[in-house]
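Retro notes, item 3 of 5
We never archived the inputs for the NAP complex last cycle. Fixing that now. Sequence and ligand:
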Amino acid sequence: MSEDMFSLKGKVALVTGASGAIGQEISVSLARAGADIIAMGRNMDRLRKTAEMVKKHKRDSAIISGDISKMEDVERISRESFTHFGRVDILVNNAGTNVFKKAEDFTEGDFNLIVNTNLKGSFFLSRLIAVGMRKNNAGNIIFITSQLGKTAMNFACLYGATKAALMQITRSLAFEWAKYNIRVNSVSPGPWSTGMLEPAFKNGKTKEALIRMTPTRRLGEEGDIGGAIVFLASDASRHITGQDLIVDGGFSISRIA
Ligand SMILES: NC(=O)c1ccc[n+]([C@@H]2O[C@H](COP(=O)([O-])OP(=O)(O)OC[C@H]3O[C@@H](n4cnc5c(N)ncnc54)[C@H](OP(=O)(O)O)[C@@H]3O)[C@@H](O)[C@H]2O)c1
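Structure as it came back at the time:
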């Protein structure tokens, strides 16, 4: 084990959804711990911003644009990832989406969008990246899931279903791939103040209620998740696999609204 058990020096991390709020923090935190970053997403301006932030920590970065819900893109993302640095040691499956509707209003198109983005893309990308990890007999995969994979809330029926499925995929892959020295864990954020939740905050009351239901009396914000990711990606957690780490200010233990 390295002298600094949280060090990621010499590692390469692929972060999907690195253009989003949480993905950007994850990328920068991994870079601060010493990893070079492959930032993947669709919004090139925001991906470039992430790459700039990584460079401030004197780490190298590459950008890959793609739609994780499309199989042809998933295959290309995997290929290009190995081309950039010759290896991928850490994969953070962070790209995700939601369509805020009641269960009875979802269309088949909504279903396909949510399932293909959150579940299918992450699963197949993990499988492809794991092929390279197996060659090095080492790897680390983290899925960003959600508290909504464990509890019910309005407008999150399909979103929650995909996140619950990712938690089970985490356990299954951890079980199957331990023999290749690949650890697989997930991180479940509680409600976060990012663009993703904006549609749910339109009436003003939802945000207030979520804050009231959180013992720390605030939503997750920048600086709250990077430490958990570095912990799971590093030797500090080397005997932990198949687990879900909740990062939610106590939201999941609270019953007071
Ligand atoms: N915000 C919350 O309260 C909360 C709570 C629990 C869990 N989470 C999870 O945390 C993760 C990050 O969410 P966030 O809050 O940072 O939301 P966000 O700012 O909306 O970011 C979402 C990210 O996912 C990417 N993405 C979405 N669809 C994609 C696709 N088809 N192909 C490639 N990339 C795609 C977006 O890329 P582009 O913008 O480039 O398209 C963006 O980088 C998600 O998995 C989300 O489910 C969020």
